[in-house]
C-alpha cells in the first residue's frame, strides 16, 4: 500500500470555489495528500464579495473535530476563517491533543475587504492559537492587525515577524509581501533564528481570490508529506505563483486562482490574463 498522508482544513466555505475549504481541498488534491475539512462558517460569497455569513454552533464544530481525530488523524492541519473565541478554544483543545503540524492562515478579511473576524476575536487568536502554530502566514494587513505596527518596508516586516514569534509564541511566521510595492512579490520566513526570503515576479492581475488559502494549504500539504518548513514554503510559493500566473478569468470581480496552474509551466500566458497589479 502507498504511504497516504492526510491533511485537514478547518475554515469557512466559499460556494464560488475560489477560497476557503473548497480552495484548500483542491490544493490538497493537487499536492497529492488526502484532504479533509471541518466547517467553521457557511459563507455566501463570490468574486465580488461576501453577501452573508452563518457560523456553525460550537458544539457542532466540536463534533466535526471529534469525527476526524477519532478516525483519521491528519498529518498536518491548517486553519482559516475562525469567527469567535469559543471556536478558537475548541480548535485549540483538538490541536493540543493531536500534537500535529499546524499552519494558521489568520483570515481577517475577504479579498473584497469584508471583515470576517471581529476585534475581540483577533485578540483571542493571539491568545489561543498563535502559540500552537508551527507556522502562521499573515499578509501585510493581517500582520499589522496582529502586531499593531505599520509595515511598509523590509525592516518593519522583520520587526513584526519577531513580535509574532518572540512575543506571541508562534514557532515560525511567513510574512507575505504581496501587498507591498516593488517589481517582485517577496515573502519572508522567520523561524525565530533567521530569515529566509522567497521571491517571485509580481504578476499583473486582479484574479487573486483565495491566494492566501491556496498558499497556506500547499504548505500544509507539504508538511503532511514530511517536508521541512523551508522546503514546504518554497513549494507553496511556486504553487501559488503558478496559480496566479495562469488565471482562469472567472467571475465579475477578483477571480479565483488556477489550482492546476503548475501543470501549465512553460505555456505562454494568454493575452489579457494579467490586467491589474497583484
From TrEMBL:
Q: Is NAD tagged as a keyword?
A: no
Q: What class of enzyme is it?
A: transferase
User: What's a single GO CC term here?
Assistant: cytosol
- According to its UniProt record, the EC number is 2.7.1.49, 2.7.4.7
* Source domain of life: Bacteria
> What sequence ranges are listed for the domain Pyridoxamine kinase/Phosphomethylpyrimidine kinase?
14-258
Q: Which GO terms describe its biological process?
A: thiamine biosynthetic process
GO MF term set: ATP binding; hydroxymethylpyrimidine kinase activity; phosphomethylpyrimidine kinase activity
Pfam families assigned to the protein according to its UniProt record, in alphabetical order: Phos_pyr_kin
Q: In which pathway does it act?
A: Cofactor biosynthesis; thiamine diphosphate biosynthesis; 4-amino-2-methyl-5-diphosphomethylpyrimidine from 5-amino-1-(5-phospho-D-ribosyl)imidazole: step 2/3; Cofactor biosynthesis; thiamine diphosphate biosynthesis; 4-amino-2-methyl-5-diphosphomethylpyrimidine from 5-amino-1-(5-phospho-D-ribosyl)imidazole: step 3/3
Per the record, what are the reactions this protein catalyses? Answer: 4-amino-2-methyl-5-(phosphooxymethyl)pyrimidine + ATP = 4-amino-2-methyl-5-(diphosphooxymethyl)pyrimidine + ADP; 4-amino-5-hydroxymethyl-2-methylpyrimidine + ATP = 4-amino-2-methyl-5-(phosphooxymethyl)pyrimidine + ADP + H(+)
List the keywords (alphabetical). Answer: ATP-binding, Kinase, Nucleotide-binding, Thiamine biosynthesis, Transferase
InterPro entries recorded for this chain?
HMP/HMP-P_kinase_dom, PM/HMP-P_kinase-1, Ribokinase-like
Family in the record: Belongs to the ThiD family.
Q: Provide the protein name.
A: Hydroxymethylpyrimidine/phosphomethylpyrimidine kinase
What is the organism of origin for this protein?
Terribacillus saccharophilus
Amino acid at each position: 500500500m502507498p504511504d497516504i498522508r492526510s491533511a485537514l482544513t478547518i475554515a469557512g466555505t466559499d460556494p464560488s470555489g475560489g477560497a476557503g475549504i473548497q480552495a484548500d481541498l483542491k490544493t490538497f488534491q493537487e499536492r497529492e495528500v488526502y484532504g479533509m475539512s471541518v466547517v467553521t462558517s457557511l459563507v455566501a460569497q463570490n468574486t465580488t464579495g461576501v453577501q452573508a455569513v452563518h457560523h456553525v454552533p460550537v458544539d457542532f464544530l466540536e463534533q466535526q473535530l471529534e469525527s476526524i481525530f477519532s478516525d483519521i488523524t491528519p498529518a498536518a492541519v491548517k486553519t482559516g476563517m475562525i469567527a469567535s473565541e469559543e471556536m478558537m478554544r475548541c480548535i485549540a483543545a483538538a490541536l493540543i491533543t493531536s500534537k500535529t503540524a499546524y499552519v494558521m492562515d489568520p483570515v481577517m478579511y475577504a479579498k473584497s475587504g469584508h471583515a470576517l473576524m471581529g476585534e475581540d476575536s483577533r485578540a483571542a487568536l493571539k491568545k489561543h492559537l498563535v502559540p500552537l502554530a508551527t507556522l502562521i502566514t499573515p499578509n501585510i494587513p493581517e500582520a499589522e492587525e496582529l502586531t499593531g505596527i505599520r509595515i511598509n518596508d523590509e525592516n518593519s516586516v522583520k520587526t513584526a515577524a519577531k513580535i509574532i514569534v518572540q512575543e506571541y509564541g508562534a514557532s515560525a511566521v511567513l510574512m507575505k509581501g504581496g501587498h507591498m510595492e516593488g517589481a517582485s512579490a517577496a515573502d519572508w520566513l522567520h523561524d525565530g533564528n533567521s530569515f529566509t526570503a522567497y521571491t517571485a515576479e509580481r504578476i499583473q492581475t486582479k484574479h487573486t481570490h483565495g491566494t492566501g488559502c491556496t498558499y497556506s494549504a500547499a504548505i500544509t500539504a507539504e508538511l503532511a508529506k514530511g517536508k521541512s518548513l523551508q522546503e514546504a514554503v518554497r513549494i507553496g510559493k511556486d504553487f501559488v505563483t503558478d496559480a496566479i500566473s495562469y488565471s482562469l478569468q472567472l467571475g465579475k470581480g477578483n477571480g479565483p486562482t488556477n489550482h492546476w496552474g503548475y501543470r501549465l509551466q512553460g505555456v505562454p500566458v494568454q493575452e489579457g490574463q494579467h490586467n491589474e497589479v497583484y
